[in-house]
């Protein structure tokens, strides 16, 4: 947990420890990044308004080498900030004050997703959509034969759409199947779809594979 407010950090650390988690708290992004490199955690919680390196840059720095689930916990509730944090690489965003039960529910969902991704087996065939190849067994995505770096969440989202080729899945369906949330912010889906398009589409203005069906949701087509 990277949080510069001592009172908030201590209260959340104690509350999460009461729920059975082992938590390491730091007050700055620099300390948190050093700790993550030295002894990687399986989830990172990060505030945005940090001294020195801010939360956005902290997320981007983690994402350069690590696909660990990242949850933003911030008092900033402006849509621009939420979208910017997700585009930087965060998997989820919670606005302070945070209810500990909601936070732990999100953490459990993140861990279930991580285990499910790690448990993919070689019996799952490569999914091909023209020049786009998705290899669930190896956690790989390729476009025109070239590997594409995607986060764990982006990969699960892409696999979910690929397993239903040509079928429209609503944002709520994707929240439930990819994030494990029965209730959640649909902007999570929109931002991750946008990030995926930047990585797998030659022309994001006219996507060939990852298509929006207005008023309904998204589909992956060949």
TrEMBL record:
GO annotation (BP), single: regulation of DNA-templated transcription
PROSITE patterns membership: OMPR_PHOB, RESPONSE_REGULATORY
Domain of life: Bacteria
One of the record's GO cellular component terms: protein-DNA complex
Occurrences of domain Response regulatory (ranges): 1-111
GO function term, MF aspect, one: transcription cis-regulatory region binding
Key words of the record: DNA-binding, Phosphoprotein, Transcription, Transcription regulation, Two-component regulatory system
Residues with 4-aspartylphosphate modification: 47
All residue ranges annotated as the OmpR/PhoB-type domain in the record: 124-222
Entries under Gene3D superfamilies matching the protein: 3.40.50.2300, 6.10.250.690, Winged helix-like DNA-binding domain superfamily/Winged helix DNA-binding domain
Segments passing through the bilayer: none
Keyword Membrane on entry: no
Keyword Heme: no
Annotation: DNA-binding region: 124-222
Record's protein name: DNA-binding response OmpR family regulator
